[in-house]
Amino acid sequence: MNSKIWLSSPHMGGNELDFIHEAFETNWVAPLGPNVNGFEKDLETYLNEDVHVAALASGTAALHLALILAGVERDDDVLCQSMTFSASANPIVYQGANPVFIDSEQDTWNMCPDQLEMAIEAGIEKGKKPKAVIVVHLYGMPAKMDEIVAITNKHNVTLIEDAAEALGSSYKGKKCGTFGDYSILSFNGNKIITTSGGGALVCYSEEDKNKAIFLATQARDNAPHYQHSHIGYNYRMSNITAGIGRGQMMVLDKHKDLRRGMNSFYKDLFKDIEGISLLVEPNRDYYSNHWLSAILVDPEITGITREEIRLGLLEDNIESRPLWKPMHLQPVFAETSYFGTGVSEKLFDIGLCLPSGSNLTSEEKSRIKNSLHKVLEKAI
Ligand SMILES: *Cc1c(COP(=O)(O)O)cnc(C)c1O
């Protein structure tokens, strides 16, 4: 049996262990230290928009703190893109607030600005303006940020940008992760760079960053004993994992280019195949890191479903995965309200993510190509 080809697997650059050794040699084996500060500095330099970054234990923790800093409390409404990973929505529930899910649009698969505005207006009409909006850049593709920022500004609603999948992407030349009132990043094992597990909150003032770090380190008041006036969390990043992050930052742009190369590989592979369309940048305003390359399969034209393609690839030990199942279709959110016209349902029915890692070899690419050709030939 051939070795497994993964959707997206960790890809070390080579310098990560040096930073970890340094942490051991200096005994900074703790959730603070030079690697944590250094990794934050690296991210601030990379994003380059006068941002302030707090390194945290996960992207989910970063979203939770963003909601707290945005003042989200029990029974507030928070509007959230429906087509996303559950981690975008779960922290709304941690706060005792109510998620309201918003459908996607066709071009980027991200939050539909029309449905967003309808949901905000509906909230205002019933006397309950939503407290925050969570927009996501799925698979690295920037959402329609001009429209979304204009709507949240117009109605004065806090915008939280979930850029967990979009480090290295940009929209009109501005990096994803710098559009929200708060933005979050993730460094989980399958993301474009990884610290094995980790995340970051991007803030726009030193004061917000300090508040986030205060909450992330159990909210200790300034006193010699342990004194607390707030509920705190244990959400800080460790100095060991931050060392991995510092090494990964050295290869981020290189790995982004390799993922973009995977997208070109699929563009070429599917260019003459009717009924299969790849998620591509709608125009030059959009620049995607192409964290994952994903296709839509029209079974009426191809004679094959996305599930048959997935199983065909699996037979050759190649991993692929349906798109994120929209949150409003998840059993756990069955009672939650939703604004949409069925776009995300349709995408979920026919969409498939393909192996997209920056570490795929040319042999592995050949295997993917041959396997896809084999599956598609059977269909015709
Ligand atoms: C990975 C991911 C997160 C969560 O990040 P963790 O670091 O795994 O907690 C949040 N939102 C999206 C869209 C993600 O893909």
User: Could you estimate the helical fraction of the residues in percent?
Assistant: 25-40%
Bound ligands: pyridoxal-5'-phosphate
Q: CATH top level of the largest domain?
A: Alpha Beta
So what's the overall shape?
globular
CATH architectural name of the largest domain: 3-Layer(aba) Sandwich
What is the helix/strand order? HHEHEHEHEHEEEEEHHHEEEHHEEHEH
Largest pleated sheet: 8 strands, mixed
**C-alpha end-to-end distance:** 27 Å
What is the mean predicted local confidence, pLDDT? 97
- The class by helix and strand makeup works out as alpha/beta
Walk me through what this model shows.
With 380 residues, this protein is α/β, with parallel strands linked by helices. The protein folds into two domains: 16-251, Aspartate Aminotransferase, domain 2 (3-Layer(aba) Sandwich); 253-379, Aspartate Aminotransferase, domain 1 (Alpha-Beta Complex). The protein is built from 13 helices and 15 strands. The strands form three sheets. It has an eight-stranded mixed beta sheet, sandwiched between helices. Strands 10-12-15-13 form a four-stranded antiparallel beta sheet. It has a three-stranded antiparallel beta sheet with strand order 7-6-11, with no helix packed on it. Helix 2 (34-47) runs parallel beside helix 8. The longest helix has 18 residues, at 252-269. It is globular and about 70 Å long. Bound molecules: pyridoxal-5'-phosphate. The site of pyridoxal-5'-phosphate has 14 residues, from helix 3. The site of pyridoxal-5'-phosphate (PLP) has 14 residues, from helix 3.
